[in-house]
Amino acid sequence: MTKSELIERIATVQTQLSAGDLE
Q1: How do residues 1-23 score in pLDDT, each as one tens digit?
Q2: How far is it, in rounded angstroms, from Cα 2 to Cα 20?
Q3: DSSP characters for 1-23?
Q4: What is the pTM of this model?
Q5: Residues 6+ apart with CB under 8 A from 1
């Protein structure tokens, strides 16, 4: 996994967590 892929993965997880908190 490249560094950019890792950053993108983390950003996706953070977005999902934020969406979960809003619900």
Answers
A1: 799 999 999 999 999 988 777 66
A2: 27
A3: --HHHHHHHHHHHHHHHHHHHH-
A4: 0.53
A5: 9
